[in-house]
Amino acid sequence: MRMRKVKWAVDYLTQSPHLVLEPQTLKGKWKDYLKVDSLHVEIGCGKGNYSLEMSNMYPDQGYVAIEKNESAAGMAVKKFDENEGNGHLALIQKDASDILSWFEIGEVDVIHLNFSDPWPKKRYAKRRLSSKSFLDQYKTILNKSGQIQMKTDNASLFEYSVLEFENNGFKMIEFSVDYRRETHNEDVLTEYEEKFVKKNQPIYRCVWEKI
Ligand SMILES: C[S@@+](CC[C@H](N)C(=O)[O-])C[C@H]1O[C@@H](n2cnc3c(N)ncnc32)[C@H](O)[C@@H]1O
């Protein structure tokens, strides 16, 4: 669903110290920049609560949130800025199809795909964040045993993604078709996830490791 333009958020975006305007300049240097030992990248972060809360919960992990929509990105960095003292968090407001030019080979430890747009029509399948062209890029920037963690409410996207991962050099290490049946305090609910959980809809989740 297309988000309506939120003027204050678009105006706010570029003043935020959490926004990285030229991510290619930090290629290979993200861990030093964020002063962390491990690097997590969330693609399609929406309004940013997942990266923010996860980085608060795990101070030794750095989070780079990527969001192409200006309004959502502006709202995310506003929240980041209001959360004083968290220096291990950054946002890139760009389309993730360029991700290879922002991260060095093997630089990333974990990629998070949370409630990615399903793009149900076959002609738009290449836009799915779990399609082969994205997975090939993720494989390059992930370290040797790097992981991709995916959550979705969408059974068709989940099924499609399982096959794409399987056929493109990843092995499954965790799988659930009702992830929130149990409490998982170690993993924050995203904004979309909260809505689905409230409606008692199952959350599909899998974790993949690079082979
Ligand atoms: C359905 S929303 C989910 C937001 C958030 N992850 C959550 O779970 O609440 C998907 C988000 O991914 C973003 N997105 C989709 N494709 C993207 C891409 N290629 N690069 C960057 N962001 C993308 C959209 O703009 C949208 O904000």
Word description of this protein:
With 211 residues, this protein is an alpha/beta fold. The chain has a single domain, classed as Vaccinia Virus protein VP39 (Rossmann fold, 3-Layer(aba) Sandwich). 30% of the residues lie in helices and 23% in strands. It contains seven helices and seven strands; from the N terminus they run H-H-E-H-E-H-E-E-H-E-H-E-H-E. The protein has helices spanning 7-13, 30-34, 49-57, 70-82, 132-141, 155-166, 191-198; strands spanning 38-43, 61-66, 89-92, 108-114, 142-152, 170-176, 204-210. The chain has a seven-stranded mixed beta sheet, sandwiched between helices. Helix 3 links the parallel strand 1 and strand 2. Helix 1 (7-13) packs across helix 4 (70-82). The model has no long low-confidence stretch (mean pLDDT 96). Bound molecules: S-adenosylmethionine. It comes from Floccifex porci. This is tRNA (guanine-N(7)-)-methyltransferase. S-adenosyl-L-methionine binds at residues 42, 67, 95, 117. It catalyses: guanosine(46) in tRNA + S-adenosyl-L-methionine = N(7)-methylguanosine(46) in tRNA + S-adenosyl-L-homocysteine. Pathway: tRNA modification; N(7)-methylguanine-tRNA biosynthesis.
How would you sum up this structure in a few lines?
This protein is 30% helix and 23% strand.
Defining key terms:
7 strands, 23% strand, 7 helices, Rossmann fold, alpha/beta, 211 residues, single chain, 7-stranded mixed β-sheet, binds S-adenosylmethionine
Would you tell me the overall average pLDDT?
96
- The coarse overall form would be globular
CATH topology: Rossmann fold
C-alpha end-to-end distance: 34 Å
CATH architectural arrangement? 3-Layer(aba) Sandwich
The amount of beta strand, in percent, is: 15-25%
| Number of domain modules | 1
Uncertain spans: none
The ligands found in this model are: S-adenosylmethionine
Q: Going across the major beta sheet, what is the strand order?
A: 3-2-1-4-5-7-6
CATH superfamily: Vaccinia Virus protein VP39
How would a crystallographer describe the biggest sheet?
7 strands, mixed
How many alpha or pi helices? 7
Class per helix and strand makeup: alpha/beta
The quaternary structure here is single chain
CATH top level class name: Alpha Beta
